[in-house]
Amino acid sequence: MGAVEKQRTQLPARDGWEYAPAPESREIVSFKDRYGLFIGGKEVTPRSRSWFTSVSPSTEEPLAEVAQAGAKDVALAVDAARGAFADWSSWKPSERAKVLFRIARVLQERSRELAVAESLDGGKPIKESRDVDLPLAAAHFFYYAGWADKLEYAFPNRRPRPLGVAAQIVPWNFPLLMLAWKIAPALACGNTVVLKPAETTPLTAMLFADVCRQAEVPPGVVNIVTGDGSTGAHLVRNHGIDKVAFTGSTEVGKAIQRELAGRGIPLTLELGGKAANIVFEDSALDQAVEGIVNGIYFNQGHVCCAGSRLLVQESIHDQLVRKLKRRMATLRVGDPLDKNTDVGAINSKAQLERIEELVASGTEEGAEIYQPPCRLPEKGWWFVPTVFTNVAQSHRIAREEIFGPVLSVLTFRTPDEAVEKANNTMYGLSAGVWTEKGSRILWMADRLRAGVVWGNTFNRFDPSSPFGGYKESGFGREGGRHGLEAYLRFE
Ligand code: NDP
Q1: For the residues 315-334, what does the mean pLDDT come to?
Q2: Closest C-alpha to ligand 1, atom 36
């Protein structure tokens, strides 16, 4: 027996492993006590004279006060964006590109600070904010900086022109990354923007305002109005806007669509999902288990394209579920700032209640629940990674977006049945296929009504790859060359 093998046999059993705490220092972030609105390149006091507190979901500790923008504040922000548009859109595209490159560089330079801020304000594990959110946010600015002076080549024989003022509303699951998805292509195309971050995660957007100042973004090109849903509604209702881009729930997406009807304003909607992650019997099972775990427990399942419906070929159901449960027992739930943490805090009390309600419906409707033994912190909002087996397609947990760390397992026998079940949803954002046959992945991808289909992987993102939905998951694409089109008109 070789030395390494000998050592391996002497290692303690899995349950014997204890991880020492490995906390990331939070000293690198210093939030101000109170933030105003970012309008015309300056932080301004809201006319509404009203503020709310942003709290950390993992400790319930107040982090900072943030302005609640009213209709007048929103109007000022739109005016500032309109005022800056004529100049910004006439800049030499290569000069605009430099501004985007500078933003990307500053995001990289301040990535540790921003990652810690994101984990504090939103509850996501530091290893995700540090290794996924921040690098991808910077990559989006780099990517679209590259397009800024090549729009004529992106759309040959058409004359691309910016739209004007883009109103952009983002959710709480990837605050900085969604901001980057929205702002980078808009600026690259010569638009100015007014962005509304989510109520529970406004702080990295306020730090981004500082990034803009550092990167010398001209005043008025980027404006940020914080507040609750009413601030978003004021923004959509404002008649000075030329474009709306929204990511969030299908319900609010529909309300925005109704509001814009007849106004001739281009709209992109990136809404919910109930993605099928489909595992065939010939797939590499251990690799598939990692993909399933990443698909649903990444970011506490607060992911619109999460693989929340696991479709398993019947012949391997028991084996796969056994492996999955064993893997789930190793997930570390807790302090988002601990570098060992896999699953952080649920973003808000309201979201926790929504998850609890749907999980209760799963048990009531007859599905079988499994949750690994897990000690949760006493303060804050937490939910144990959960899997349901014996799930029927009619169950609410198989139909509704839970937006939490909850997986529903269903089975199929043939590829045709897998396709039918995968498509049996009102959503159509993403899907995953696990098989050793490349031809089967292509066959499935052709038939799945989903904007993104991953083959032998899940939750992979790249700025050059378009992302968006079918059916009630929305319309329009973000990312890639397609993502530019949403911010252009053609002469
Ligand atoms: P919302 O759709 O309410 O929030 C998304 C954004 O829209 C937030 O900035 C929100 O502001 C804003 N908003 C809310 N109401 C309006 C309005 N009438 N007009 C304009 N903007 C508005 O999502 P929730 O936070 O309420 O989450 C509810 C459910 O939505 C989740 O359980 C999940 O299923 C789904 N969801 C899906 C997301 C996705 O990426 N597809 C992202 C987030 C949620 P504020 O935060 O201040 O309310």
Answers
A1: 97
A2: 249
Domains and CATH numbers, the chain: 26-271+471-490 (3.40.605.10), 276-455 (3.40.309.10)
Q: Is the pLDDT of residue 297 over 70?
A: yes
Check whether 13 has a pLDDT greater than 60.
no
- Could you tell me if the CB of 233 is within 6 A of ligand 1? yes
Find all residues with CB under 8 Å of 125, minimum gap 6, and list them.
119, 336, 338, 341, 342, 343, 344
Ligand 1 within 6 A of CB of 51: no
Q: Is 226 in the pocket of ligand 1 (CB under 6 A)?
A: no
Catalytic annotation on 304?
Answer: yes
Label residue 8 by pLDDT band (50, 70, 90). very low
Task: Report the percent of the chain where pLDDT is more than 70.
Answer: 97
Q: Active-site residue among 128, 270, 478, 485?
A: 270
pLDDT at 11 over 60: no
For the whole prediction, is pTM greater than 0.90? Answer: yes
Task: Identify the active-site residue in 304, 401, 472, 485.
Answer: 304
Whether the CB of 275 sits within 6 Å of ligand 1: no
**pLDDT tens digit sequence for 75-88:** 999 999 999 999 99
pLDDT over 90, % of the chain: 96
CA of 247 to the centre of ligand 1 (A): 7
Distance of CA 111 from the midpoint of ligand 1 (Å): 26
Give the residue whose CA is nearest to atom 28 of ligand 1: 249
Q: What is the pLDDT confidence band of residue 14, given thresholds at 50, 70 and 90?
A: low
Indicate which residue's Cα is closest to atom 27 of ligand 1.
Answer: 249
Nearest CA to ligand 1 atom 38: 248
**pLDDT, tens digit, for every residue of 363-417?**
999 999 999 999 999 999 999 999 999 999 999 999 999 999 999 999 999 999 9
Closest ligand 1 atom, CA of 169? 9
Q: Which of 1-5, 100-104, 255-259, 376-380 comes out lowest in average pLDDT? A: 1-5
Residue of the CA atom closest to atom 21 of ligand 1: 232
Measured from the CB, is residue 247 less than 6 Å from ligand 1? yes
